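Lecture notes, continued. The same structure-token format from the folding unit now serves as the input rather than the output. Read the line below as a description of shape only.
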């Protein structure tokens, strides 16, 4: 527990460090308006804060900088989000893919850091299936979801199918299973396969298997925009190792998926600070994230990735506004 004086000093130190990017010394803080303390008193309080692991002293400077633990205390108990007027354009409501790509760009442009959006969790329900003959034993499977998303898959078949047989197969699937989940179709087809001619039944089962794989892969899409913005951040330009680890994180995307999955388990804006856990594996990175919805149901997560020395109050507002814009656009596109 910190007393009021220690809390005020920690708050002013972190705010000043976020603004200037330089380690903060006791003399600098003693000149801050509203802090009627001598440099000697400030040094004593700073020593206590350092002993608590809330600030630390870089070996090249007599000043102090916040630790991950210090940032965590700051964002959890001292941060007051300022409601500025942000100019954020409406997102296009015509196609979900465009909404997601536009949202990642918007997050990046507004924050000047990295925007990241996890594509909506699609249901495995299909609205329409079609087969297109590419060559003798090669077909293109086209699956359209109720939201209008299109998934394509190439099928290699043992038998050769005529155009009329392909129409017969697609008509049967659309007439009997449209609006059902792929998993339900698979179970029903096992029961119906005896009624169908062998080759057609086999084609339908292959289509369902391919459709299931296509739907599954679509779940893992993460859109990232603005990675190059980190090149302009002084915190990274002086430490190429940290910058390289950040870019590795964007390349792999697997860790990002896990992080965004964690974010989706809670409502509102969440802040993850690098160095305090394995959730964000790069020490000097922080993530501000929020969920977005379609017709009141949470379907994905978006956020801003930047240095731990970021203006958290502004990032919270950017992420919150963007999540609302995405929710509105996706809900409209589904109507």
């Amino acid at each position: 527990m910190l007393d009021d004086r220690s809390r005020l000093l920690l708050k002013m130190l972190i705010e000043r460090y976020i603004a200037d990017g330089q380690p903060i010394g006791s003399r600098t803080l003693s000149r801050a308006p509203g802090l009627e303390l001598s440099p000697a008193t400030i040094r004593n309080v700073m020593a206590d804060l350092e002993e608590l692991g809330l600030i630390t002293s870089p070996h090249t400077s007599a000043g102090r900088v916040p630790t991950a633990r210090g940032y965590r205390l700051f964002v959890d108990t001292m941060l007051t989000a300022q409601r500025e007027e942000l100019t954020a354009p409406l997102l296009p409501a015509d196609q979900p893919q465009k909404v997601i790509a536009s949202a990642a760009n918007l997050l990046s442009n507004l924050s000047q850091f990295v925007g990241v959006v996890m594509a909506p969790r699609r249901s495995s329900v299909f609205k329409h299936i079609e087969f297109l003959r590419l060559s003798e034993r090669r077909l293109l499977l086209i699956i359209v979801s109720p939201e209008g998303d299109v998934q394509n898959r190439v099928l290699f078949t043992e038998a050769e199918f005529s155009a009329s047989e392909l129409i017969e197969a697609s008509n049967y699937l659309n007439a009997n299973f449209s609006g059902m989940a792929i998993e339900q179709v698979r179970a029903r087809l096992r029961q119906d396969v005896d009624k169908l001619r062998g080759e057609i039944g086999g084609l339908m089962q292959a289509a369902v298997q391919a459709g299931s794989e296509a739907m599954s892969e679509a779940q893992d899409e993460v859109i990232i925009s603005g990675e190059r913005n980190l090149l302009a951040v002084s915190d990274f330009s002086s430490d190429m190792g940290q910058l390289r680890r950040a870019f590795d994180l964007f390349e792999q995307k697997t860790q990002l998926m896990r992080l965004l999955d964690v974010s989706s388990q809670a409502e509102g804006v969440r802040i993850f600070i690098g160095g305090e856990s394995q959730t964000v594996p790069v020490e000097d990175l922080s993530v501000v994230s929020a969920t977005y919805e379609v017709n009141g149901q949470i379907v994905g997560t978006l956020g801003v990735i930047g240095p731990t020395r970021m203006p958290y109050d502004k990032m919270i507002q950017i992420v919150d506004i963007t999540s609302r814009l995405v929710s509105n656009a996706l809900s409209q596109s589904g109507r």
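Point for the exam: The CA atoms of residues 204 and 223 lie 32 Å apart.
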